[in-house]
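Minutes, project check-in
Item: structure for the 98-residue chain
Input as provided by the requester:
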Amino acid sequence: MVAVLLAGNVLSGCGDACERLCRETSLRLASCIDGSTTWADLGARNRVDFVDQCQAAWDRTSAELTTSDLGEAVEICAEGHDTLATLTCDEIRLLYAR
């Protein structure tokens, strides 16, 4: 669940905080991919596929939340932006490696 919420990040200001978190996480993961890690290790074909999967997971999750829970989840995603900035590449890879 933490990975899904962290993964909820989006760049560009479009969408909610969880969608932005999906995009931001994908960019951070892209900067952390090295010779020992591939997108396939992260369960995706590429960065765009990671974002698509993350946003689809968020869409499914958010559709089942009450209005109150949805507000809380979006706040957690917003906090995830700050948390993402503090994580090392090793920590990020551990969160998302399959």
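Outcome recorded: Residues 67-86 form the longest helix (20 residues).
No further action items on this chain.
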